[in-house]
Design brief:
The chain is an alpha+beta fold. It has a single domain (about 5-125), classed as Sufe protein. Chain: A (Alpha-Beta Complex), CATH 3.90.1010.10. Helices cover about 40% and strands about 15% of the residues. It contains 5 helices and 3 strands; from the N terminus they run H-E-E-E-H-H-H-H. The longest helix is centred in the C-terminal third of the chain and has 22 residues, at about 105-125. The structure holds FE2/S2 (inorganic) cluster (FES). FE2/S2 (inorganic) cluster binds near residues 34 and 60. InterPro entries: NIF_FeS_clus_asmbl_NifU-like, NIF_FeS_clus_asmbl_NifU_N. This is Fe-S cluster assembly scaffold protein NifU. It comes from Brotonthovivens ammoniilytica.
Length: about 150
């Protein structure tokens, strides 16, 4: 299987791996196709709604690591509304593509970011236009990512 240089770079040196203490929002999702798990933490400025920090942890494959690394880089510094435009398609383009059998791996980051935004919105009693309830959110304690 052939990976782009950018995919290999983000796989070998993933950015933003880890956790955020007292995050503004957390999202954990499972990949329906392979069963792998991803958790995303967001730190959001309460006034400007800018994502100040974003970290991830995953039990996913190399493509999941690379796409999550790129996705966290892309959402940092964006507002919660702009972050919705960071789709798996946008992440794959930023990585110069993924082999077709690995496209489903890139969905983990997008879905986990959406789940974390949903969590943030629920905690703060706000509605984020264009954000729908995550299908596969796994609640705290049910997933084995820590
Ligand atoms: Fe599961 Fe890639 S095979 S995330």
């Amino acid at each position: 299987m052939k990976y782009s240089e950018k995919v290999m770079d983000h796989f070998n040196n993933p950015r933003n791996v880890g956790v955020i203490d007292q995050p503004s929002g957390v999202g954990t999702v499972g990949n329906a196709r392979c069963g792998d798990i991803m958790r995303i933490y967001l730190d959001i400025d309460p006034d400007t709604k800018v994502i100040r920090d974003c970290k991830f942890k995953t039990f996913g494959c190399g493509a999941a690591v690379a796409t999550s690394s790129m996705a966290t880089e892309l959402v940092k510094g964006k507002t919660i509304y702009e972050a919705l435009k960071v789709t798996n398609q946008a992440v794959m383009e930023a990585l110069d593509g993924l082999p077709p059998v690995k496209v489903h791996c890139s969905l983990l980051a997008e879905e986990a970011i959406h789940a974390a935004l949903w969590d943030y919105a629920e905690k703060n009693g706000i509605v984020i236009e264009g954000l729908s309830k995550p299908k596969t959110d796994i609640h705290e304690g049910e997933a084995a990512v820590s």
